[in-house]
Amino acid sequence: MLHTRTTPAERRRALRARLATGRLLAMPGALNPLSARLIQDTGFEAAYLSGAVLAADLGLPDIGLTTSTEIAARAQQTTRATDLPVLIDADTGFGEPLNAARTVQLMEDAGLAGLHLEDQVAPKRCGYLDGKSVVPREQMAHRIRAAFAARRDPDFLLMARTDARAVEGLAAAIDRAKAYVDAGADAIFPEALADEAEFEAFRAAVDVPLLANMTEFGKSPLLDARTLTDLGYDIALYPVTLLRLAMGAVEEGLRTLAAEGTQESLLPRMQTRSRLYELLDYERYTAFDATVFDFTLPPGT
Protein backbone atom coordinates (compact mmCIF):
# COMPACT_ATOMS: atom_id res chain seq x y z
CA MET A 1 0.00 0.00 0.00
CA LEU A 2 0.99 3.63 -0.65
CA HIS A 3 4.01 2.41 -2.60
CA THR A 4 5.64 -0.65 -4.09
CA ARG A 5 7.37 -3.26 -1.96
CA THR A 6 10.41 -3.42 -4.26
CA THR A 7 13.15 -0.99 -5.20
CA PRO A 8 13.93 0.20 -8.74
CA ALA A 9 17.22 -1.70 -8.59
CA GLU A 10 15.39 -4.92 -7.72
CA ARG A 11 12.93 -4.45 -10.56
CA ARG A 12 15.73 -3.78 -13.04
CA ARG A 13 17.54 -6.92 -11.99
CA ALA A 14 14.27 -8.84 -12.24
CA LEU A 15 13.77 -7.71 -15.84
CA ARG A 16 17.33 -8.63 -16.78
CA ALA A 17 16.96 -12.04 -15.14
CA ARG A 18 13.62 -12.66 -16.84
CA LEU A 19 15.03 -11.82 -20.27
CA ALA A 20 17.97 -14.16 -19.60
CA THR A 21 15.60 -17.14 -19.27
CA GLY A 22 14.91 -17.18 -23.02
CA ARG A 23 11.15 -17.39 -22.37
CA LEU A 24 8.85 -14.93 -24.11
CA LEU A 25 7.88 -12.03 -21.83
CA ALA A 26 4.38 -10.65 -22.47
CA MET A 27 4.34 -6.92 -21.75
CA PRO A 28 0.97 -5.11 -21.78
CA GLY A 29 0.90 -1.34 -21.93
CA ALA A 30 -0.55 0.41 -18.87
CA LEU A 31 -2.81 3.39 -19.44
CA ASN A 32 -2.57 4.68 -15.86
CA PRO A 33 -1.15 3.58 -12.49
CA LEU A 34 -4.28 1.62 -11.56
CA SER A 35 -4.13 -0.40 -14.78
CA ALA A 36 -0.46 -1.14 -14.04
CA ARG A 37 -1.55 -2.62 -10.74
CA LEU A 38 -4.18 -4.68 -12.56
CA ILE A 39 -1.53 -5.94 -15.00
CA GLN A 40 0.41 -7.17 -11.99
CA ASP A 41 -2.66 -8.62 -10.30
CA THR A 42 -3.54 -10.56 -13.45
CA GLY A 43 -0.18 -12.34 -13.39
CA PHE A 44 1.92 -10.53 -15.97
CA GLU A 45 5.61 -10.05 -15.16
CA ALA A 46 6.28 -6.61 -16.68
CA ALA A 47 4.43 -3.54 -17.89
CA TYR A 48 5.00 -0.88 -20.52
CA LEU A 49 4.31 2.83 -20.90
CA SER A 50 3.62 3.81 -24.49
CA GLY A 51 4.41 7.29 -25.73
CA ALA A 52 1.28 7.14 -27.87
CA VAL A 53 -0.86 6.25 -24.86
CA LEU A 54 0.68 8.94 -22.66
CA ALA A 55 0.13 11.52 -25.39
CA ALA A 56 -3.44 10.35 -26.06
CA ASP A 57 -4.20 10.57 -22.34
CA LEU A 58 -3.35 14.28 -22.64
CA GLY A 59 -5.55 14.59 -25.73
CA LEU A 60 -2.50 14.88 -28.01
CA PRO A 61 -1.38 12.95 -31.09
CA ASP A 62 1.81 10.90 -30.99
CA ILE A 63 4.03 13.42 -32.77
CA GLY A 64 6.56 14.34 -30.10
CA LEU A 65 4.54 17.02 -28.31
CA THR A 66 5.07 15.59 -24.84
CA THR A 67 8.20 16.49 -22.89
CA SER A 68 10.70 14.35 -21.04
CA THR A 69 9.65 15.78 -17.67
CA GLU A 70 5.96 15.13 -18.35
CA ILE A 71 6.71 11.53 -19.26
CA ALA A 72 9.02 11.03 -16.27
CA ALA A 73 6.37 12.39 -13.89
CA ARG A 74 3.73 10.03 -15.25
CA ALA A 75 6.19 7.15 -15.12
CA GLN A 76 6.95 7.79 -11.47
CA GLN A 77 3.23 7.69 -10.66
CA THR A 78 3.07 4.28 -12.34
CA THR A 79 6.20 2.75 -10.83
CA ARG A 80 4.90 3.75 -7.39
CA ALA A 81 1.81 1.61 -7.97
CA THR A 82 3.33 -1.67 -9.19
CA ASP A 83 6.09 -4.07 -8.22
CA LEU A 84 6.57 -5.00 -11.86
CA PRO A 85 9.51 -3.75 -13.92
CA VAL A 86 8.25 -1.07 -16.30
CA LEU A 87 9.73 -0.25 -19.71
CA ILE A 88 8.97 3.17 -21.18
CA ASP A 89 8.85 4.64 -24.67
CA ALA A 90 11.22 7.62 -24.62
CA ASP A 91 10.63 8.59 -28.26
CA THR A 92 13.79 10.09 -29.79
CA GLY A 93 15.20 11.08 -26.41
CA PHE A 94 13.40 14.43 -26.66
CA GLY A 95 16.11 16.23 -28.57
CA GLU A 96 19.81 16.00 -29.27
CA PRO A 97 22.16 13.38 -27.75
CA LEU A 98 22.58 15.51 -24.63
CA ASN A 99 18.79 15.51 -24.21
CA ALA A 100 18.79 11.72 -24.59
CA ALA A 101 21.41 11.51 -21.85
CA ARG A 102 19.27 13.61 -19.52
CA THR A 103 16.22 11.52 -20.42
CA VAL A 104 17.98 8.34 -19.28
CA GLN A 105 18.68 9.85 -15.87
CA LEU A 106 15.15 11.22 -15.55
CA MET A 107 13.75 7.76 -16.26
CA GLU A 108 16.17 6.12 -13.83
CA ASP A 109 15.03 8.56 -11.16
CA ALA A 110 11.40 7.76 -12.00
CA GLY A 111 11.94 4.13 -10.98
CA LEU A 112 11.72 2.58 -14.42
CA ALA A 113 13.46 -0.64 -15.43
CA GLY A 114 14.41 0.58 -18.89
CA LEU A 115 13.55 2.68 -21.91
CA HIS A 116 13.77 2.61 -25.66
CA LEU A 117 15.02 5.36 -27.95
CA GLU A 118 14.14 5.48 -31.63
CA ASP A 119 15.90 6.64 -34.76
CA GLN A 120 13.16 8.83 -36.22
CA VAL A 121 13.69 12.50 -36.93
CA ALA A 122 11.82 15.12 -34.92
CA PRO A 123 8.92 15.68 -35.04
CA LYS A 124 8.38 11.92 -34.90
CA ARG A 125 5.21 10.09 -35.78
CA CYS A 126 3.53 6.82 -34.89
CA GLY A 127 5.65 3.90 -36.08
CA TYR A 128 2.83 2.46 -38.19
CA LEU A 129 2.10 5.62 -40.18
CA ASP A 130 3.51 6.29 -43.63
CA GLY A 131 5.84 9.19 -44.30
CA LYS A 132 8.31 8.52 -41.50
CA SER A 133 11.90 9.71 -41.73
CA VAL A 134 14.93 8.40 -39.88
CA VAL A 135 18.12 10.15 -38.88
CA PRO A 136 21.45 8.93 -40.32
CA ARG A 137 22.69 5.74 -38.69
CA GLU A 138 25.71 7.40 -37.06
CA GLN A 139 23.52 10.15 -35.61
CA MET A 140 21.36 7.56 -33.89
CA ALA A 141 24.46 5.68 -32.72
CA HIS A 142 25.64 8.94 -31.15
CA ARG A 143 22.27 9.19 -29.41
CA ILE A 144 22.72 5.69 -28.02
CA ARG A 145 26.30 6.34 -26.92
CA ALA A 146 25.18 9.45 -25.05
CA ALA A 147 22.43 7.49 -23.31
CA PHE A 148 24.85 4.70 -22.45
CA ALA A 149 27.35 7.15 -20.97
CA ALA A 150 24.65 8.83 -18.87
CA ARG A 151 23.26 5.61 -17.42
CA ARG A 152 24.18 5.24 -13.76
CA ASP A 153 22.63 1.84 -13.04
CA PRO A 154 24.11 -0.80 -15.40
CA ASP A 155 20.96 -2.90 -14.93
CA PHE A 156 18.76 -0.17 -16.42
CA LEU A 157 17.79 -1.61 -19.82
CA LEU A 158 18.75 0.55 -22.77
CA MET A 159 16.80 -0.52 -25.84
CA ALA A 160 17.11 0.94 -29.35
CA ARG A 161 14.14 1.05 -31.69
CA THR A 162 14.66 1.30 -35.42
CA ASP A 163 11.95 2.54 -37.76
CA ALA A 164 14.17 2.00 -40.79
CA ARG A 165 12.31 -1.04 -42.17
CA ALA A 166 9.56 1.15 -43.64
CA VAL A 167 12.00 3.78 -44.90
CA GLU A 168 15.19 2.00 -46.04
CA GLY A 169 14.22 -1.67 -46.12
CA LEU A 170 14.88 -4.73 -43.99
CA ALA A 171 18.61 -5.07 -44.68
CA ALA A 172 19.26 -1.47 -43.66
CA ALA A 173 17.17 -1.91 -40.51
CA ILE A 174 19.26 -4.94 -39.54
CA ASP A 175 22.50 -3.05 -40.20
CA ARG A 176 21.25 -0.21 -38.04
CA ALA A 177 20.33 -2.61 -35.23
CA LYS A 178 23.85 -4.03 -35.23
CA ALA A 179 25.34 -0.52 -35.12
CA TYR A 180 23.07 0.40 -32.21
CA VAL A 181 24.17 -2.67 -30.26
CA ASP A 182 27.79 -1.71 -30.90
CA ALA A 183 26.96 1.78 -29.56
CA GLY A 184 25.69 0.34 -26.28
CA ALA A 185 22.09 -0.83 -26.76
CA ASP A 186 21.17 -3.87 -24.64
CA ALA A 187 18.15 -4.83 -26.76
CA ILE A 188 16.50 -3.98 -30.07
CA PHE A 189 12.94 -3.03 -31.04
CA PRO A 190 12.50 -3.48 -34.81
CA GLU A 191 9.37 -1.53 -35.73
CA ALA A 192 6.83 -2.47 -38.42
CA LEU A 193 8.23 -5.76 -39.68
CA ALA A 194 6.03 -7.06 -42.48
CA ASP A 195 5.74 -10.81 -41.93
CA GLU A 196 7.10 -13.85 -40.10
CA ALA A 197 10.00 -14.14 -42.52
CA GLU A 198 11.19 -10.67 -41.57
CA PHE A 199 10.88 -11.43 -37.86
CA GLU A 200 12.93 -14.57 -38.47
CA ALA A 201 15.59 -12.71 -40.47
CA PHE A 202 15.99 -10.13 -37.73
CA ARG A 203 16.38 -12.81 -35.10
CA ALA A 204 19.01 -14.62 -37.17
CA ALA A 205 21.05 -11.44 -37.60
CA VAL A 206 20.91 -9.85 -34.13
CA ASP A 207 21.98 -11.66 -30.97
CA VAL A 208 20.59 -9.41 -28.22
CA PRO A 209 17.03 -9.54 -26.83
CA LEU A 210 14.42 -8.56 -29.41
CA LEU A 211 11.00 -6.99 -28.90
CA ALA A 212 8.03 -7.79 -31.16
CA ASN A 213 5.48 -4.98 -31.31
CA MET A 214 2.03 -6.61 -31.45
CA THR A 215 0.04 -3.41 -31.68
CA GLU A 216 -3.39 -3.55 -33.28
CA PHE A 217 -4.26 -2.01 -36.66
CA GLY A 218 -0.61 -1.81 -37.68
CA LYS A 219 1.65 -3.20 -40.37
CA SER A 220 2.96 -6.28 -38.55
CA PRO A 221 0.80 -9.41 -38.25
CA LEU A 222 -0.59 -10.14 -34.78
CA LEU A 223 1.52 -13.18 -34.02
CA ASP A 224 0.57 -15.34 -31.06
CA ALA A 225 2.86 -16.18 -28.18
CA ARG A 226 3.72 -19.65 -29.49
CA THR A 227 4.77 -18.25 -32.87
CA LEU A 228 6.89 -15.51 -31.30
CA THR A 229 8.51 -18.08 -29.04
CA ASP A 230 9.32 -20.27 -32.03
CA LEU A 231 10.78 -17.23 -33.80
CA GLY A 232 13.06 -16.63 -30.82
CA TYR A 233 11.69 -13.28 -29.64
CA ASP A 234 12.12 -12.17 -26.06
CA ILE A 235 9.34 -9.61 -25.52
CA ALA A 236 5.81 -9.51 -26.93
CA LEU A 237 4.60 -5.94 -26.59
CA TYR A 238 0.91 -4.96 -26.45
CA PRO A 239 1.35 -1.20 -26.13
CA VAL A 240 -2.10 0.27 -26.78
CA THR A 241 -4.39 -2.73 -26.22
CA LEU A 242 -5.72 -1.62 -22.83
CA LEU A 243 -6.31 1.97 -23.98
CA ARG A 244 -8.27 0.77 -27.00
CA LEU A 245 -10.33 -1.62 -24.88
CA ALA A 246 -11.02 1.03 -22.26
CA MET A 247 -11.89 3.81 -24.70
CA GLY A 248 -14.11 1.47 -26.72
CA ALA A 249 -16.01 0.57 -23.56
CA VAL A 250 -16.24 4.21 -22.46
CA GLU A 251 -17.56 5.34 -25.82
CA GLU A 252 -20.15 2.57 -25.91
CA GLY A 253 -21.16 3.35 -22.34
CA LEU A 254 -21.63 7.02 -23.09
CA ARG A 255 -23.84 6.22 -26.08
CA THR A 256 -25.91 3.85 -23.96
CA LEU A 257 -26.27 6.42 -21.18
CA ALA A 258 -27.32 9.09 -23.67
CA ALA A 259 -29.83 6.78 -25.37
CA GLU A 260 -31.35 5.15 -22.28
CA GLY A 261 -31.05 7.88 -19.68
CA THR A 262 -29.65 5.43 -17.13
CA GLN A 263 -26.57 3.25 -16.68
CA GLU A 264 -28.65 0.31 -15.43
CA SER A 265 -27.97 -1.92 -18.46
CA LEU A 266 -24.25 -1.26 -18.17
CA LEU A 267 -23.87 -2.58 -14.63
CA PRO A 268 -22.95 -6.18 -15.62
CA ARG A 269 -19.99 -4.82 -17.64
CA MET A 270 -18.63 -2.63 -14.86
CA GLN A 271 -15.89 -3.44 -12.40
CA THR A 272 -17.64 -3.70 -9.04
CA ARG A 273 -16.90 -1.46 -6.10
CA SER A 274 -15.63 -4.45 -4.12
CA ARG A 275 -13.20 -5.45 -6.89
CA LEU A 276 -11.90 -1.90 -7.16
CA TYR A 277 -11.36 -1.72 -3.41
CA GLU A 278 -9.60 -5.09 -3.51
CA LEU A 279 -7.32 -3.85 -6.27
CA LEU A 280 -6.57 -0.68 -4.30
CA ASP A 281 -5.79 -2.80 -1.22
CA TYR A 282 -8.18 -0.57 0.67
CA GLU A 283 -8.33 -2.76 3.76
CA ARG A 284 -4.58 -2.64 4.43
CA TYR A 285 -4.73 1.11 4.94
CA THR A 286 -6.18 0.34 8.36
CA ALA A 287 -2.58 -0.35 9.40
CA PHE A 288 -2.16 3.42 9.34
CA ASP A 289 -5.64 4.58 10.28
CA ALA A 290 -8.30 2.28 11.67
CA THR A 291 -11.06 4.71 10.65
CA VAL A 292 -10.30 4.29 6.91
CA PHE A 293 -11.77 0.82 6.43
CA ASP A 294 -14.37 0.46 9.17
CA PHE A 295 -17.30 -0.43 6.93
CA THR A 296 -18.84 -3.49 5.28
CA LEU A 297 -19.74 -3.38 1.61
CA PRO A 298 -23.30 -4.36 0.69
CA PRO A 299 -23.52 -7.66 -1.25
CA GLY A 300 -23.01 -7.38 -5.00
CA THR A 301 -21.34 -3.97 -4.99
Task: Produce the secondary structure layout.
Blueprint: H1 8-20, E1 25-28, H2 33-41, E2 47-49, H3 51-57, H4 68-81, E3 86-89, H5 97-109, E4 114-118, H6 137-150, E5 157-162, H7 165-168, H8 170-183, E6 187-190, H9 196-205, E7 211-213, H10 225-231, E8 235-238, H11 241-260, H12 273-279
Parallel strand pairs: 1-8, 2-3, 3-4, 4-5, 5-6, 7-8
Summarize the structure.
With 301 residues, the chain is α/β, with parallel strands linked by helices.
Low-confidence stretches: none
Which class of secondary structure composition applies to the elements? Answer: alpha/beta
**Intertermini distance:** 22 Å
Strand residues, percent: 5-15%
Q: Please write the string of helix (H) and strand (E) elements.
A: HEHEHHEHEHEHHEHEHEHH
The total beta strand count reads 8
Give the number of helices.
Answer: 12
Could you tell me the mean pLDDT? Answer: 94
Rg, rounded, reads 20 Å
Helix proportion range: 40-55%
Shape: globular
Biggest β-sheet: strands ordered side by side in the sheet: 2-3-4-5-6
Q: Characterize the biggest β-sheet.
A: 5 strands, parallel
